[in-house]
Amino acid sequence: MKKLLSLILGATLVFSCTDQLEEIQPQNSVSDFVAFSDGTTALGTLMGVYSSAQDGDVLGGTSAMVQEFQSDNVEFLGSFPTFNDVKNYVTLSDNGSTGAIYRDNFRLILTANNVIANIPLVADEQFQQATRDQYVAEAKFLRALAYFNLVNMFGAPYSDNNGAGLGVPIVTEAFTGDVILFERATTAEVHGQIIQDLNEALPDLPTSFSAAEGGRGRATQGAVRAFFARLHLIRGEYPQAADFAGQLINNPDYELGADYSFFGQDTDEHIFLIQNSTIDGSSWATWFNGADLGARGDAPFSQDLLDAHDPADRRLTDLSVQGVNADDGNSIFTTKFPDAVNNSDDSPVFRITEMYLTRAEALAETNGINQESIDLINDLRARAGLADVAAGDFATPADLITLILDERRKELAFEGHRRNDLLRRRQGLRPAGDANFADAAFGQPKTLLPIPQREVDLNPNLVQNAGY
Amino acid sequence: MKRISFSIFCALMLLAGSAYAQNRTITGKVTGSDDGLPLPGVNILVKGTSEGTATNNDGTYSIQADGNATLVFRYLGYVTQEIAVGNKTVINVILAPDAVSLGEVVVVGYGSQSEKLTLQSVSNVNAKVLGNLPVITPQEALQGQAAGVNVVSSSGIAGASARVNVRGVASLGASATQPLYVVDGVPLNDVIRSGGQGGTGLNPIADINANEIESMTVLKDAAAVSIYGSRGANGVILITTKKGTAGKTKINFNYQTGWNEETYRLNMMDGLEYQTFRNDIRVARGGTAVAVVDRDYDWIDRIHQTGRSDQYSISARGGDENTTFYISGNYLDQSSFMIGNEIDRLNARINLTHKLSDGVRFGVNVGVARTINDRIGAENNTFAPFTASALQNPTVLGQDPETGAFTRTGFIRNVVAIEALATNELKTRRLTGNIFLEADLIEGLTFKTDFGIDQLQNEQTSRFPDIIEPNGTGFKNIGQDLKYLTTNTLQYDRAFGDHNMTVLVGQSYELRENESISVAGTGFVADALPNVGNAATPTTTFAGGGDWAIYSLFARANYNFDNRFLFEGNFRRDGSSRFGANFRFGNFWSVSAGWRLTDEEFIQNLNLFDELKIKASYGTSGNDRIGLFPSIGLFGGADYAGIPGIRPTQAANANITWEETSQLDITVNASFFDSRLNIEASYYDKRTDGLLNNIQIPWTTGFSDFNGNIGEIQNEGVDLLINTVNVQSSDFVWETSLNLGFVENTVLSLPEENIDDQGRVFAPVAAEQRAIVGESVNTFFLIPYVGVNPQTGEAEWLDIDGNITNSPTPADRRVQGTAIPKVVGGFRNNIRWKNFDATVFFSFAAGHEIAYTGLRFTENAGGGFNKSRDLLNYWQNPGDQATTPRLDGSTIFTAQQRSTRQLRAGDFIRLRNLNLGYNFPSTLMDKIPYLNNIRVFAQGQNLWLSAAAEFEPEFGGFPLGQSFFPTAQARTYTIGVDVNF
């Protein structure tokens, strides 16, 4: 008996050994040591930056929707109190939804910083220098996009005193455990960072990617040039804007779509888009479709945007449908993002149509009424089924620019451009007669989103936007 | 399913029901002279034979004996009595406590101790109390029963988890504040078992049938919890299941049937009110009215029903000197008052012990359960009946008025159609048990080895048809949680003269393996295809899991001199896979001392105390609930364009280690007037240092938080338990029990980085809450709301300087009380008159605040969702005492922003239980063969409530005190019968 007992006792003591504690490792994550161990994992970390861009708050639809209804393209009808506060121009700084936009864009930036800092250090001799440079360049391009998002929504508009107002903090280093309490840089300084990233990225990027590599969902030299065109336009630097836009219009890789079927397709219309699949789930469709399709029905056309269209305009007839809105009524919804079931719609970021509009506007600003601007606009109007315009139709360059901006609004509606197009022109965000017309006038505090209260609480160096 | 399981019971009954009868039947009841309560489990032997039985839960017994026999009544801690049968047929016995023996035993970690000699602060709920409660899950049995233990049911949703806080809130993380559950020595897999579908997740210990529980012991002070080391800081709940007793086999059959309904409904607008109100706003703000349609669909009424429950339990208990057994089976079928919510549970248990020889025993305790939970969403979920019925526009019809066909209602889903057409089900299979071998090696030295398992399999199936989700969606998750545990202990008991000592040493190794597979897809050809495998487009394909292990050494030593001077020390060393190699091991300990004054001459001379003991303890315990790999930086899956990708999901902190709680406890136990008045009072000071928490860091780090040991929290309080026997006669007994737990929670330190405008150090907890140094960890931090100005009709708040403002900002927030109740407790009265008995039980909590954040929706004048009728009381003319601002003013769309407008005092008292019972007289029972006792009973739960707030004051979720459309609690009516053979 005693022998048996001592055997059991001995066996159980041996069985329990502490070495087993160390053998237990995560199954669904890898540690940071593994993440930058070779070229394959390094590509994985770069894909992680792109994946961050898929987020609704970054380039996946939500931040675009907020900017569309904060301005005049969308009538927000949903239930979120946070979005209703933005709609009604009564936002407070503890607004969780706008806070999430700030959070998720910085998440992308820090994810990119990690890649930029660590890829050059990967100890893998097979991992070519040119490939490393390209990955770093892609990460810089994406980081620049996130900064552009942030400074447009949370920073003072560049059009206000050439960006001398406060932008957002500039963070270019990876987080290593030390919490640094950054101050806000000015909008001009943030633009400076964006320009630096784009300039550094341009030479290291290819002109295109194969479909297996992600096609137009990866950053190319064309994407950087399109970004420059948009940035210069917002800064009022028209000759440069016209130049970069022209480079793309003349690039045979890109071509105006014959109709509007290019949404969600990897076509020549697109210079750069974020590819989304059914397992990613972007936010576009859930906001912009009717409840009858299983979406939220929150963000239909505003009456003002409907009124801006000619009834025969194909951008209305081909790209809209009546649906049930979140307020149990009927509204007109865009069909640019139709997949309300799986939310797999791609995010259009840069497309050639924008370059037509940018060059047309920039040329009109520099050269006045000119035939090239009119030709560019007529290309778009022809696609929309509208009659050409001619130089004689415009009394002043301002009239032509007004028409170009109007076309720009209709072409790019729901893609998140409208608010910035108004702000860079120092215009109010809402039309006359709107309940919040006065609150939405240029320079009014709630035309900017608040720096999240949480960030101000955690970082005394952050200065809040006026009025919050 | 119901039919099959019922037949199992019938079979069980037949097997176990072969009773035997001889001689004549003696019946009676055994009570204790100390508190007059019936004594269950008293051993009754016919002297000189092996014939015997034991008393039932209500103290009654029945035994066969002839007139020459003598019955021996033996009960641990009481003086054994022998009574000659003579010509009596009814023998009622009152047993006196044995002054030399040391009373009832209480279960403690890795053993049991005499209640009178223990130095540990524990709260004990035994079968006496449990037997009288119509509880479904074990935590409910603790509600209001144990001083210092705050138990809150999440809601009336079947299977919802309860929240248990032992002596305040000692941690910041969500699951970290919950105690450790240990069943027959096996620490359970007690993470919330399944996603909450918007609300609180499902109860991790819902598979344990309360009827199988012999006792539940809540370990509270350091002396009690330090032997659980790194997992003891938030208390430990030891559940002991019923064991066999030697003597004649006793069969118990219990049937209960019940009805339940909701305790409250939200008062929302109907179709006409809704349209009129919105038109009033449009017109007031210069717009034009929209034509009012004659459409109204009472969503709230349609999601409610009368819930039903049926519960069948049968058990057999018996054995001889060498082998004892307890076998039980239980079937529960319960629907809640919400449509589409049902639980169907089948339990069985077998507990066996066998004496191999004089010094060697072994045994097995095994519980198996199968639970099918037909689930509903809750709280922050547009598929949740409670939330959706409140917010759905009342002019939206759920069915076509002509055809009755369900409609697609858009983003707020058609919850009536979901109930009718969708599947949302969690199946759980669980096996919990242990086998053990115990051997007396030399005199006083006992070796015990124990191998335990807790195997849990969850299978969640969801399938939403086309009308809910276009083309349909499906989801399936299968999760396995397997836990193995080996424990070996050596215990040495020795007494020499007046010196008594016990030493326990042990070691244990515990490994938990978790695996989970999920798939989801969209696009089905037809609703008739139930399986997600038929989906055209996969949207989730996940496989994953996580393991952890803990290796421990522990020891306890007790010494007492003459049962008067008592000393105890505990030690545990834990090593856990959760922490980095440098900080993997932690040591925990406690020391305690007590003085049992009862037997001291100067106390006995006072002739006042029947029992008096003073004890004090100090020691440490830990908490490791902060994820599986908190120390390392992690990258998680983040694919793009079909290329695998990863991105950072967790920042590294190699220095992370245990959270450590040290606790001082001073307790006095006293009993007076022939034990008619019993008082236990404890003071404690519990300090948690190195709080394990996700430290909030600026988003400019790329993270929201990182894991760290931060700050220090203090919970200081008093637990008070007063039991009295107010009336005690043979026909009438009235007992009262009051327990109170007072706690003051204070944050002592936090990282110095976060300092508010008033110079206070804080950490964010929720949008409404902060942990603030000098205040509680759940301090509400909100803008003060004043009300609607009767003259101007505008909503008014206070700014930080105390001036009225119409446009406050977050800079105007201030401390507005705490979510932690200052006092929680229970008040019970038991009355017994002849064969009737009644229990009236109230529970209460006070001194805390609750944020009803759903008011930001229901009192929101904008937006196309339904609104509270309170909004109809809007300001129209100067002098109006309105609750809603003027419709044309500047504050109508801001009044619902976060402020104290959504905050309410949390104080409440609730009639938790009203219980009436009748035992058929034993004279009648004697005439029916085999029958020993029949009891019929009627019970009501949550019958009455008085609360400071107009909404439900009890709900689950995290953090404490934050509610968002919490489903109502259930008001339950139950009747039942309990038969002993």
Q: How would you describe the overall organization of this protein?
A:
The complex is a heterodimer of chains A (468) and B (981). Chain A is mostly helical and 468 residues long. Chain A has a domain of 266 residues: Serine Threonine Protein Phosphatase 5, Tetratricopeptide repeat. Chain A has 19 helices and five strands. In chain A, helix 7 packs antiparallel against helix 8, helix 10 packs across helix 15 and helix 15 runs antiparallel to helix 16. Chain A is globular and about 80 Å long. By secondary structure, chain B is mostly beta strands. Chain B is 8% helix and 49% strand. Chain B is built from eleven helices and 50 strands. In chain B, the strands form ten sheets. Chain B has a 22-stranded antiparallel β-barrel. Chain B has a five-stranded mixed sheet with strand order 10-15-16-13-14. The radius of gyration of chain B is 30 Å and the shape is globular. Chains A and B meet through helix 1, helix 2, strand 1, helix 3 and helix 4 of A and strand 22, strand 24, strand 25, strand 26 and strand 30 of B. Strand 1 of chain A pairs antiparallel with strand 30 of chain B.
